[in-house]
What we know:
Blueprint: H1 17-22, H2 38-52, E1 73-75, H3 89-100, H4 107-114, E2 115-116, E3 121-122, H5 124-133, E4 137-141, H6 147-152, E5 157-162, E6 171-180, E7 185-190, E8 193-199, H7 200-208, E9 214-218, H8 229-241, H9 245-258, H10 263-275, H11 279-292, H12 297-309, H13 313-326, H14 331-343
Antiparallel strand pairs: 1-6, 2-3, 4-9, 5-6, 5-9, 6-7, 7-8
Amino acid sequence: MFHxxxxxxxxxxxxxxxxxxxxxQIEHMISSRFARTPSHxxxxxxxxxxxxxxxxxxxxxxxxTLSDNTPPGIELEKVPFYPQExxxxxxxxxxxxxxxxxxxxxxxxxxxxxxxxxxxxxxxLSMVSATRRRGKIAYEIGDPQDLYPEIAxxxxxxxxxxxxxxxxxxxxxxxxxxxxxxxQNIILRSGTTRRKVMPYYVFERTWARSDHWGLLVLEPGRxxxxxxxxxxxxxxxxxxxxxxxxxxIVGYQxxxxxxxxxxxxxxxxxxxxxxxxxxxxxxxxFREAAQLHPQSAVAHNNLAYVLFKQGxxxxxxxxxxxxxxxxxxxxxxxxxxLREIQSSMP
Length: 346
């Protein structure tokens, strides 16, 4: 396959340090020894009493105030269910989300890609990577306010909970499929339970321990309800980096419907088209980017390079000269493009 030249600038979309760090947290790290002796059974019962007790002395949180267009309750009953095997909540929840998104798959098929035997669990980064390898948008959330609009939009959300304590973590993936703001409950596909109803204050406490990490698995043409431009483009860029170029193209086109003036979306679309050897399509995207953003040296450089690759050297030379004249932090690369074009001409 013909891959993009290093001379094409990639638009960098910066993510928060906290978001990156969350990608390295580990789920479900409890040892199996805790299930072996009666004394540990007593401990687990005592722990559950503490977790669920309303007399713990801790303030009980409630579902955040919902916007006027968000219903007070909803349940996505059609989300499939795969009961997990031991330590396999990662593959099980991802299989549910992928199957819901239109790609039927079983936890067993995902196990080798997601599950780490040495850690007895799955990294969030592995969950995201496996999603992208199947051409799906992996859109991460970290704000509890984003959960309810997504469920209301029909999007199940994989969440990471710590069902244990800070000094004895029990990391666990579940899929939120509904909520009831009146009864203050969250509805999940969790473990071996198809429909687990959890009091919101318990859910919030366990979810907060992962910094409210959540994952949406969506078709590239489907926009998250809580999407922001940078976060969505970062998710699409993940597809591009995974060489899922056709899916990335759809994702960038979807972004342009929402943000038609986005420079990063047009650049990403052009780079993905170029990766598939669609030079005319890439030219069109870069040309639109340069017209909408005449001060963008990046857009002019990429347009010049694609024109050059089509043998249109005179046009490429003029555009490359403009890219150099615009300057900026990437001028050394624009200089290289210009020199390459000049060296090919008599």
